[in-house]
Fold these 2 entries.
Entry 1:
Amino acid sequence: MVSVLFVCLGNICRSPTAEGVFRRVCQEQGVADQIRIDSAGTANWHAGKPPDARAVMTAKGRGVDISGLRARQATAADFYDFDFVIAMDDSNVEDLEILRPVDASAELHRFLAFAGSDAPRDVPDPYYGGDEGFEQVLDLITEASRGLLNHLRTADRPL
Ligand code: 4NP
């Protein structure tokens, strides 16, 4: 069993989308029962809330239902509880490096490190923008999800 935690700022746009899309990619490749997937935010502003309605609609348009997810804040314990902590942008990586206990085992990565070389560094924060921002987020997350799963399958672990 491999465990993956996706992290953004609010846990209502990018990381719940990543949780839903990555779960779908794992299902398509027949490995969903071997991977535990969750998401969290570095901030606690939206704790307990469902994903942003625009994120729910955009994911639904791609056949992914994230309406049942609820936001929570990332904790230091997550770095012991998960094998991989996957951040949406450089700012998330900075916040998570501060939260991370020195002896914790989780690997911390930037999500788009698993996308193609044409991809930007960050999954852009779509919260204050228009609907097309959410479509772009879906595209980037879909590409990086495939790359991440390839990495997990080829890494030094039985998957
Ligand atoms: P997320 O987007 O980090 O992708 O969930 C945001 C959601 C809420 C806020 C910022 C970003 N906010 O400022 O409330």
Entry 2:
Amino acid sequence: MSAIDDLPPLRTVIAEHQLSARKSLGQNFLLDLNLTAKIARQAGDLTGCDVLEVGPGPGGLTRGLLAEGARRVLAVEKDARCLPALAEIAAKYPDRLDVINADALDLNPLAHLTPPIRIVSNLPYNVGTELLTRWLDPPEWPPFWSSLTLMFQKEVAQRITAAPGSKAYGRFAILSQWRTDARIVMELPPEAFTPPPKIHSAVVHLQALDAPRFPACSKTLFRITAAGFNQRRKMLRASLKGTAPDIEDRLLAAGIKPTQRAEELSLEQFCALAREIDKT
Ligand code: SAM
């Protein structure tokens, strides 16, 4: 029996199902169920919510989410070896855990979820930023999810929550902070995982705002942030040259000096520039 439910401890589960960690799948497992329940709590009240979990592995975080009262968990796992261990959890929580054996990049989870929806995951490093980018840039806003509670490499978490002028400030900060409240809620050392990765990790909680902080077209905003930060040491008149033929005039009209660099611009200034570029 474990600390949060009457299922076997995760070390026993891993040994019984021979779930040796595979680096190619980003497998660094959390085995402390008190810790996984604490991560689940960072997502807020889960009762009455469907939760999407990408990469449940042997089910440590899944068990935390269920013990914390999630109405339903949809767990998407690429590694078929984990399915028997996850089936044991599903049997203990009737009608509350659905497991899909798929690559999360190929699956439309909406078909399997009912709002309100929260996404809570200890993401595999190889697909983590791609999934975050997709969740942050859906076809419509507000998105299908109300919050994201995600474990990342600490440097990625810092890029999401970074302020202008800092080394970590870039495209991810703009993408995240434009339409969510984003903060780091937990930091975890390598020893929290089995096997321990080489890096430190952090959990970021992103709460979707009802509307963007400042008006702008997302395509234009992401295009100028990509261009600006791809050449972050260059002045904006050079780094944004390809985004509009009269970029210097557009910068000035938005109240931005063409000699400034992308890392000096606030989110509000990026949005003002996006609106200027979209004026005919
Ligand atoms: N949630 C577990 C935990 O916290 O201990 C495991 C987290 S481990 C960092 C990442 C998990 O994602 C692994 O179980 C791995 O097999 C799975 N995974 C890797 N790539 C995936 C993908 N493209 N789609 C779905 N799952 C994936």
